[in-house]
Structure formats: C-alpha cells, structure tokens
Amino acid sequence: MKKAPDTKLKDYFNAIASKRKNRFFSKYYWNEITQYCAYFAHEDSSILEVGCGNGDLLANIPGAKKTGIDFSPTYIQWAKERHANSGIEFLEMDANDIKLTEKYDLIILSNLIGFVSDIENVLEQVRSCCHANTKIIVQYYNSLWEPLIKFTEFIGLKQKTPHQNWLSTRDINNLLFISGFDVFRNSKRLIFPFYIPVLSFILNKYLAKFPFFKFFGFNIYNFAKILPETNEAVYANKYSTTVVIPARNESGNIENAITRLPKFGKHVEIIFIEGNSTDDTWQKIQEIQKKYSATHDIKIGQQKGKGKADAVREGYKMATGDILMILDADLTVPPEDLPKFYNAIASGKGDFINGTRLVYPMDKEAMRFLNYLGNHFFSWAFTWLLDQRFKDTLCGTKVMFRWDYIKLTKNRKYFGEFDPFGDFDLLFGAHKLNLKIVEVPIRYRERTYGTTNISRFKHGIILLRMCLFASRKCKFI
What we know:
- By secondary structure, this protein is α/β, with parallel strands linked by helices.
- The chain folds into 2 domains: 7-226, Vaccinia Virus protein VP39 (Rossmann fold, 3-Layer(aba) Sandwich); 232-475, Spore Coat Polysaccharide Biosynthesis Protein SpsA, Chain A (Alpha-Beta Complex), CATH 3.90.550.10.
- The chain is 36% helix and 19% strand.
- The protein has 17 helices and 14 strands.
- The chain has a 7-stranded mixed sheet, with helices on both faces. A 7-stranded mixed sheet has the order 10-9-8-11-13-12-14, sandwiched between helices.
- The longest helix has 20 residues, at 456-475.
- The radius of gyration is 25 Å and the shape is elongated.
- The model is unreliable at 21-25 (pLDDT under 50).
C-alpha cells in the first residue's frame, strides 16, 4: 500500500514555498549542491529530481529531458512560474507513490530523505524509474551539524523545520542497499555553509577536500546504481566485445595474442593498431590476420599519431563491439584473464573495469622497483582525487561500454587532450560520466619478447603533471 504524505509536513513545505525564502540555507548553500550535481549531469541525459522544490536545481544542470516532482502544489506552481520556458516538466506527485512510466539516466534526491516517513518505500519507488545504467545521487546534510542547525532555528536565523530523520552515511548506504541499489561512491563537501567573500572560497573549495576537514563536510552525497545481475545465464552471451591491441615493436607477441585469447560473450572482435615500430610488427600483424581469418574476426590499422592513447582511439573508431577492451601487446596482462573483465561489466558490477596488478605476487622482472613505487603513489593520489579507492591506475587493461566511450569523447573537451598514454584520460572521463569504476585483480607477467616503451622518469613527470591538472577538474570544483 502506498504511503500518504504527512499533512503537517505538507503544510510546512507549502508555507516555505509561499514565503519563498530561507535565510540560513542561503543561495550560496543551494548553489553548491546544484554545481556538484551538475558536474555529473550531461547534455544528452534524462534527469528526474524527486522533491524538486522550486525547480532551481533542475534548471541549472544540463540534460536532454528533465522532470521534477514534488508533493507540494505550491512548490510545483512556483517552479512552473520560475521556469516557464525551460522545457522542464514539473509534476505534483508524492514520492511514496511515483506514477511515471519513463526510465531516467540520472535521478537526484536532494534534501528529501530527512523528511519522508518511509525512506525504503521512497527508494523502491525511485527504483521503478531506473534502467540498468541509471545513476542515483542522494544528498543529505551531515548529522554532525544537527546541534548547530537547531541552534540557528532557536535564535531565528533559520525557519524551524519538522523533526528530521537522523541519518549517517552508513545509514543511507544501507537503505539504498536494501532498496536494491549498489552504492559506489560517498562524498562530503562544504564545511562552511555561509557566504563570506574569500573565506568561503578558501574553506569550501580547498580546505574541505582534505582529510580531517572533509569529515566535517555539511553535505553528504551517496552515489548508487541498480544492484548487479547475479544470473550468469542472463549476461553470458549478451554483449559483443572489441579487444583493441596497440602494438609497437611487439612482433614476437602478435600470434600469442590471438592463440591465447579465449572466446567469451556474444562475439569477440580483435583490432590491432600498429604504431611507429622499428621491427617487423606491421608485417607480422598482416600475416596473422590472413592466417587466422577463418577462425577470428581481426581488423588491423596503423596509427597516424604517436603514443598509446592515440593508438587506442584509432582502434575504438573502428570498433563495432558493445564492450571495448584494451590489451597491451606485451601480454604482461594475460589474455586468458579478459573473460573476468567481461563478466564484471556485463553483469552490471561496474560500468568501467580497471585491471589491478598489485594484488597477486608478480613475476620477478614484471615491474621495476621505481615503477612499483610510482604505481602505489598514483593509486593513493587517485583514491583522494576521485573519492573512490584505487589499487592500480596504470594497468593497461581498461574496459567500458562503447556507448559510454562515445559520451566520454563528447565530454573530452572538459579535460582537454592532456594524456599521451590514455589511462588517466579514460579514468577521469569515467569519473566525470559518473560511472561505477571496479577493479579486477590480474596476475602481472614478465615480458617474453621486446623491451618496455615506458621511461620511468620522463613519463613519471608527465603523469604527475596530469594529476595536478586533473585535481582542478575533479577535486577542487
């Protein structure tokens, strides 16, 4: 049975909408929420806000189709007046009984769950508006600030509110889980919810992003998606896959890449992209394509530019598979492990699958000591930058859906052409797309042919500069 909205609560929101102001929760506070949600919204996405209030959040984030629902008729009327020519659809509707047939790409619940009498029921209603790749953003205030909020109400700086649900990050994560959602990121932001020139900028844009200070963040954000599919029969043959193999001076590994690659999914397409080799790699690729033409779907090409990132992009332009994979031609990531990546993404356990080489013991010469230290440093840096734990950011094998990659290319202008290797470009792009990033441990093997194309110091400096650049685009926003 659907829950009816609490009458006193409805009267309260109607009263707030009628006054059209709230002195404590200032425009500065609401703008911070809007800007952060806008970071993860995209121009071609359909967006639903549950508890849309006056509609300002929806009006100020990108989206192809935007819908806002609220149980307050006064709020809905106000939203329609404020955003009459925006193309946003505002509907009077109770979150306990959502009657929408459309599935949305992004659903936002901002400052809502503290007021509802049955959060699980509301989240289950929200789930009915989700497809397999829908992302949910639940924003709520940090209960650590509850005494201050009550004090500001007592002295008249903030209008008194009905008693709210006392929720921690863990509570919200648990409620999302039991309602059928998988939480993949938690963030805290805004340690000073007032606007004082310069001071607010320094405290909230910079200091609030560092450990310890982050604990006091006023706003909690929980990011989630539908729980993954557990029945392997459903996804085992659901998607086709393209495996792009960039190859420079890897002649001795080309045939092994074919013979060791297992069959998985609906179909496997293999694309070799040769780049500026000084050995006979290109001749070997052509030879292998002919030799295995009867048993394997192999395409080949030569990159016009330089670097692995350019080679991968050339391969992705030729790709026709639903899922895109990268396999380095040195075969230090075993081709036999690729089905693990397919299963992780096809089942919905993640939207972007990243290999990690730092779990199992490695072959003795697989990774030099300085490279090992560098990988650990960048893992720590990415964990902080993206609010999600990373074990290994530089593993060459990365996997995502082709339709997400197309969105990433459209959004590449945000970061620019800053990454000659491609690892950070894909990881930062996946974060900006609000994809769930999952790591799959693999056994990292020693090379059996050729030498590495990576310079520890020269490329390490480039990677460090890219992290500093990306901190402005991902963290200090």
